[in-house]
Amino acid sequence: MKTGILLTLILLLGFNIQAQDCSLSIRGKIIHLENNEPIEAAYVWVIEAEEGAVSDQNGNFTIKNLCRGDYTVTIQYLGHKTITDTIKLESTTFSKTYRLEEEAVGLQGVEVHGHRDAVQTTTAVSALYGENLMESRGENLGESLKRISGVSTFSTGNSISKPVIHGMHSNRIMIMNNGIRLEGQQWGAEHAPEIDPFLADEITVVKGAETVRYGPEAMGGVILVNPAPLPTKKMSKTSLNLIGATNGRMGNVNLVHVGGSDKIKGLGYRIQGSAKRSGNVKSPEYFQQNTGLSELNLSSSLGYSSSKLGVEAYYSLFHTELGILNDSHTGNLSDLENIIENGRPFADGEFSYDILNPKQRVTHQLAKLKSHYHISESWKLNFQYGFQLNHRQEFDKRRGDLNDKASLDLELYTNTIDLYVNHTHKNELSGTWGVNFIQQANSNVPGTGVTPLIPNYDMVNTGFYAMEKYSKGPLEVEAGIRYDFRNVNTARYINEELKTADIAYQNFSAFLGGLYHISPDLTFNSNLGSAWRPPNVNELFSEGLHHGAAAVEIGNPDLKSEKSLKWINELQYDGKRTHLEFTAYLNPISDYIYLNPTGEIYTSLRGTFNIYEYLQANALFYGFDFAGSYEFTDKISGYLKGSIVQAKNTDVDNYFPFIPSNRMDWGISYDFSKVTDSRTNKITISNVLVAKQNREPDFDIAPPPSAYALFNISYNKQVNIGDDKLNLGLQVQNLLNTNYKDYMNRFRYFSYDMGRNVLIKINYEF
Amino acid sequence: MNTTNKLYLIALAVVSFAFSSCTSEDPVSENDGELITDVTLTFQEIDANGNAVGASFDFTASDSEGIEIGSTPTVETVTLTKGKRYEMSIDVYNSVASEDITEEIRAEGDEHQFYFLGSAFTSSPFLSYEYNDEGAEIIGLKGIVTVQQSPGFTTADFQLLLRHALDKNYPGAENPNFQDYAKAGGETDLDITFPVVVQ
């Protein structure tokens, strides 16, 4: 009897304790000491609680329902030194980042997991990987990234699309090709990013201002296109993608081979190549003439890493030749007005793979050498050198022999050097200090028979920066500062008269960010960052005719640098069945540069043209993104994404042109596979809703197109053949063959968008 | 020398090569090849048998600056006599590159065609035009202009339009006064409006 009471008491007491104090958790992130990349499938064990967890693909783990007390945590990952940590769990949830060091002893037969690139930032970050990335294969970078809420595209027809983050694109965002800032001719609206999405196994979008980390121009956000890390152990893996599409009769093939050396430990390589060919795109009622595309891309890397030293060499080649919709090449303003009134090309066209003038031919080569050295356990020295050569040729419809000559022929050389040190200390302070050097030379290749739109120029930019991050418990705080100076020298002939300019810019930028784990499921982060962007050479000096817009654009050499402040907040909930992300931002910009119609008309023997000039005004961008998913049952799940962005000219209280309208995307999936089966076997029906842009500028050559709704279907199935994996995909885009125009497509003046497209995707991994 | 040292040397060589090749070229002055600076209409009076009568005379539209904001083309007034027939030839010239573009248009006759619009040819026309090119191809480099005997007006607009890359088989495209020229596709290379006076 007594024993019974005692037992009950103890039990009650026990329950009481659990009810009051046993809802604590240990959260953490496990990353590689060498490169800060997350480690997937590391094993975490809490000895006292006899509870364990395995880190996910982002290196995160959570052990819930722990009581107050002292715990010993061990973290193990094959080929790495085990970490043992003592934790005092008090009233709040404990959170810590663990850095695993590679062990010198080689282990044979270990499979290297495709771990994800971590951006060590407190800003809002979204990534495209795994199934979603697989679904986007065959699309260009801009189109692929539309899958991320808050990201849309600014496009020219169906083959040229530039990613837009929170209403900003071109030189206001930055694209990193495997750690090197992509330096092409990004200023042009019809200049797509010179990068093959196939080289990446993850594409990350940083939505905050990241000038301190990545240099000037990273105002609206940064896109990181990253290949998987090279293997450091013996292995061999090949992946083949075959994609076919009915619209444009597109064929796309990609092959990647990754290998790790048996003889030299730590030596690994990857080679990748892709080719794409498509013909005239079909709008629901007609073919868009001369919209074919031909693309050939290569990338390769070779790396070596030991416990102290890491070296990686990387090369990528992007080559594209693409046709520009025939009807978009207007001779003068009345031609333009005629086609706008007609709303579509005059002729029905027919299918052809031929790529005729007007067309673009672009080759972008990037070579990089990266090395790091562990000076001590907590200090690491990094060096990175990148060389880029961008060759852009644009061919116009001209007369006679001139048709074979490019009317714009630019060669852009860029050298970038990064030298920085990382330190990671046991006292939870980590940081990066460095210097970044960019040198650039742009030359017009003579013989075009056209006065160059932009001058030849040399640019040198030097930046010094420092960032520190402090993490304690559920809180991470980060701050950084940077100073840049830039010098630009330009020269060109206009009417046989040499015109030169020498311009200098300098700027400070800084950021302050924080991340707080409110509960194990709920995270809040906030980041306030300043950013700047010196005016582009085209904004300063362009003077010429733009055939697509029947416009003469006049640069202004007195433009000042744009300065912006972006405050971005994100709330993230990661429950068992529910995932929610809510982002809100406020982004005032002073001296925002924009192209303004003067209202004047230029008359020539060719006819008349609108005149546009570059002006500066104070701007306010703000908006919201949301993304959520919910698993109704084990079989049925749904998602919902959307974004709203407002961009106002606060000087005159009107709206800027080419800002995305409100959009939303939702879908429902049914999973055919058994709960225990990890192989994909899923059908998804989705619906994209795009509103009419009611926040229109005072002047546009055509009113914004109406709202539209598109339906898409995709079915994906994974089959295992022995140890090999086969992924099969069938997608139908614009299922109902809807006639629509998108406000953010510059060719809405000339044509409806793409009609129904059926794609078959095969991916074989062996 | 071990492999690491060699690698560093190669890296150094690559870096220094890249830097030395990395200043912009000196700019070169370009002659705008596509530019049209002078368009001349030459009129030669002809009799009923097509024989020349008297001396020819011409009218020019010119824009020497090319693309330079603020300047407008100088367009002469075309003066013709009532009831007469003229053979009109068109000469197109680029004075910046000293190039005769007439020949290029002739060589690419299948892609080019002149249209004659404006109140002088449409609505209540007092001029009529027929193509009279030397080859089989209709271009409009040469044609016959007939002035009405007693027109209702004496002044009007003569719009000269040169279309490039049009579909010449489009129904109606062979009409020199085809107002729906845009429907035949292509783009405008020249669009000049000459004032016309008939005496």
Characterization of this structure:
Chain A: Residues 119-222 form the TonB-dependent receptor plug domain. Chain A: Keywords: Cell outer membrane, Membrane, TonB box, Transmembrane, Transmembrane beta strand, Transport. Chain A: Belongs to the TonB-dependent receptor family. Chain A: InterPro entries: Beta-barrel_TonB (IPR000531), Beta-barrel_TonB_sf (IPR036942), CarboxyPept-like_regulatory (IPR008969), Plug_dom (IPR012910), Plug_dom_sf (IPR037066), TonB-dep_rcpt-like (IPR039426). Chain A: GO terms for molecular function: siderophore uptake transmembrane transporter activity. In chain A, 7% of the residues lie in helices and 56% in strands. Chain A contains six helices and 41 strands. In chain A, the strands form six sheets. Chain A has a 22-stranded antiparallel β-barrel. In chain A, strands 8-13-14-11-12 form a five-stranded mixed β-sheet. In chain A, strands 3-2-5-6 form a four-stranded antiparallel β-sheet, with no helix packed on it. In chain A, a hairpin with a 3-residue loop joins strand 9 and strand 10. The radius of gyration of chain A is 27 Å and the shape is globular. The relative contact order of chain A is 0.11. Residues 6-20 and 104-118 of chain A have low confidence and may be disordered. Chain B has 199 residues and is mostly beta strands. Chain B has one domain. Chain B has helices at residues 3-20, 101-107; strands spanning 38-46, 57-62, 74-75, 78-80, 85-94, 99-100, 112-117, 127-131, 142-147, 155-164, 187-198. In chain B, strand 5 (85-94) and strand 6 form a beta hairpin. The longest helix of chain B is centred in the first third of the chain and has 18 residues, at 3-20. Chain B is elongated and about 95 Å long. The relative contact order of chain B is 0.18. The interface between A and B is large, with 66 and 52 residues.
